[in-house]
Write a structure and sequence with these properties.
This protein has 233 residues and is α/β, with parallel strands linked by helices. It has a single domain, classed as Alanine racemase (TIM Barrel), CATH 3.20.20. Helix content is 40%, strand content 16%. An 8-stranded parallel beta sheet has the order 7-6-5-4-3-2-1-8. Helix 5 links the parallel strand 5 and strand 6. The longest helix is centred in the N-terminal third of the chain and has 22 residues.
Length: 233
């Protein structure tokens, strides 16, 4: 497969225009980083993403990501693990991923911290705590009421650097529902920061709901379909 660079460039430009439009309408400012989600796409799509200026790429599954990174070792990209991390896969993260956005349990954080220490005792992997704001049973993430304790324990682990929170909204076209979930994460972040945690990043918003996420203060978006089209797998 050869990715159409002109189409991808146009898609990226339209997304950036939408981000600027929503920020202007809401009276917001600040950088919103786009993480191009290449899961289910071949390595050529990752190459195309970097070629049009994307610096952050996201993968859901560790094994797929490891194979993809090995196929494109020349890429100067920041790779994010955005899917659920199993403790037995933590050893594959250090040296490959710039950020893990899906820390939802203390055991996962501890396994990752141990793996980081074994590879490089002085390194710290930036991580986000995933929060299930919507309370959906099929989604990963800690409950909002557990976020303060989890965040505090993550922040105290050597080898990790707590950078913020991540969530997913329900699969719905109802923008009011989307915004309610994203506003919930923002308020939770504000409360946790008032309690002493430093949480500059809010990763929220995907292809179907990124406008609502921007309106509620997202600093990172995880975008796949709106940039690359439908996945192959």
């Amino acid at each position: 497969m050869v990715m159409d660079l002109s189409a991808l460039s146009g898609n990226l430009a339209r997304v950036r225009d939408e981000i600027a439009r929503v920020q202007a309408a809401e009276g917001l400012a600040g950088e919103v980083r786009i993480v191009g989600v290449t899961k289910g796409h071949p390595p050529e799509v990752a190459r195309a993403a970097v070629a049009v200026g994307l610096e952050d790429l996201g993968e859901n599954r560790v094994q797929e990501a490891v194979a993809k990174l090995e196929a494109v070792p020349e890429l100067r990209a920041r790779w994010h693990l955005i899917g659920h991390l199993q403790t037995n896969k933590a050893k594959y993260v250090p040296g490959r991923f710039t950020m893990v956005q899906s820390i939802d349990r203390v055991r996962v954080a501890e396994a990752l911290a141990q793996a980081a220490a074994q590879r490089d005792p002085g390194a710290r992997i930036p991580v986000l705590v995933q929060v299930n704001v919507a309370g959906e049973g099929q989604k990963s993430g800690c409950a909002p009421a557990e976020a303060a304790e989890l965040g505090g324990r993550v922040a105290a682990l050597p080898g990790l650097q707590l950078r913020g929170l991540m969530t997913m909204a329900p699969l719905t076209d109802d923008e009011a529902v989307q915004r309610r979930v994203f506003a919930g994460l923002r308020r939770l972040r504000d409360d946790l920061q008032a309690g002493g945690l430093d949480l500059p990043e809010l990763s929220m918003g995907m292809s179907a709901d990124f406008r609502a996420a921007v309106a509620e203060g997202a600093t990172m978006l995880r975008l796949g379909t709106v940039l690359f089209g439908e996945r192959f797998t």
